[in-house]
Amino acid sequence: MSTSAMPEAEFHFDFGSPNAYLSHLAIPQIEAQTGIAFRYVPVLLGGVFKATNNASPMVTENGIMNKREYRQAETARFLRDWDVSPTTPNPHFPVNTLQIMRGAVYAEGAGIFTPYVDAVFRHMWHEARKMDDADVIHEALSESGLPADDIMAGMGDAQVKQKLVDYTGASVSRGTFGSPTFFVGDEIFFGKNTLKEVQAEIELARG
Amino acid sequence: MSTSAMPEAEFHFDFGSPNAYLSHLAIPQIEAQTGIAFRYVPVLLGGVFKATNNASPMVTENGIMNKREYRQAETARFLRDWDVSPTTPNPHFPVNTLQIMRGAVYAEGAGIFTPYVDAVFRHMWHEARKMDDADVIHEALSESGLPADDIMAGMGDAQVKQKLVDYTGASVSRGTFGSPTFFVGDEIFFGKNTLKEVQAEIELARG
C-alpha cells in the first residue's frame, strides 16, 4: 500500500481531563509503533458538553453503584498496559480550562504548540497546580521556558478565542461528546481505554 | 507455566441485551484462540439495575447528542472486527427476560445449558421473537429440539427463581452494573467492546 493511504490520527483534548493526560502519556508509544504522528486538536470540554447536553462522568455516573470502582479498574489496567504513571490528584479539580485552552490555540499559531501542550498537561496532572489562576499559569509557563507574557496576552486575542470555539464546534460536528476523543480518518473513538483500538485502526488503515 | 495458571473467564449475560448476543457470537473465537472456555453466568439485568441504581444506555444516554451515533459506530466496528452478523431489530424490545433467564438456570441444572442459551439468544436477536410470551417461548424451544414443557415448568421452581437472584446478587457484589460483563479472574470488563481486552487479559494471565 502506498504512503498516500497513511491515515490521519487525531487527539481531541481538554487539559481538564485526567484521561486526556493519561492518553497524552501513551500516544508516543503508538506513534513509535505505527510511524503516524497524531494531530492534537484543542477542544473546550465545557463547550462540548453544552452543545451535546452531556456532562462529566462524575455527574452522569454519580449514584450508580460499582461505576466508580469500574473506572478505577479501567485506569489501573491502562497504567499497567501502557506502563505510564498515574495522575497526581489535583486538589483544585475541576479546574476551569478556558484560559489554558485558549493558550493552546495561541501556541499553535506561535509555533510552540508541542512544548506548550506537554508543559500544561504536566503542570495540571503531574504537578497538580491550579491552572485557572493567572499567577499560577504565568509562573508555570515561565518555569517551563515558555514565553508566558506572550501566551497570556494571546489568550485574550479575539481570533484565538474564536478559533477555540471553531475547533470545538467542528469536533462536535464530527461526533465528539467528551474528552478524550480520537479520530482515525472518519472513525471516532471515545475514552482513553479505546487507545489499543485506535492503534489497531491505524494499522488496519495503513494496510 | 503450568495449567493451574489458566484463568477463569466468565460471561455474565442477560438475553435482553443485544450487546450480550453479539458477544455470544464473538466468544467462540476467543475460546478457539486462547483455549479457555468461558463460564456463562445468567444475571438478571433488571435486578442489576435495581441494585446499582443504574439504567440502560437508552435511558442514561437519552438526549445526549452524538452518543447514539457513537454506539452505532462501535457496533459497526465490532461486527467488522469479529466478522459476525448484526442483530435483527426485535420489534418487541424491550422484552421482559425474567422467564427465559429463569429457564437458563433450570437448563443449567438439567444439563442442557449450552444448547438452551444458544437457542434463546438466536430466538431473541436473530429471529426477533417475542420471548416474554409463554406460547412464543414454548414454540421456539420446541423448534430448537429442547424439552419445552420441562423448561417452562422449571421456570416456576422456587429454587430456580432463588438461584437467579443469587447469581445476580453475587455478580453485583463483584462489580457488575450492566450487561454484558466479563471477568478474567478478578478483573472486570464491561461492554462488548472490551472483548479484545478480555482476550488480551486471558493471554496475559496464561503467561
Please give a structural write-up.
Two copies of one chain form a homodimer. With about 210 residues, chain A is α+β, with helices and mostly antiparallel strands. In chain A, about 55% of the residues lie in helices and about 10% in strands. Chain A has helices spanning about 20-35, 45-50, 55-60, 65-80, 100-110, 115-125, 135-145, 150-155, 160-175, 195-205, and strands at about 10-15, 40, 180-185, 185-190. A four-stranded mixed β-sheet of chain A has the order 2-1-3-4, with helices on both faces. In chain A, strand 3 (about 180-185) and strand 4 form a beta hairpin. The longest helix of chain A is centred in the first third of the chain and has 17 residues, at about 20-35. The radius of gyration of chain A is 17 Å and the shape is globular. Chain A starts with 8 loop residues before the first strand and ends with a helix. The model of chain A has no long low-confidence stretch (mean pLDDT about 95). The interface between A and B is medium-sized, with 27 and 27 residues.
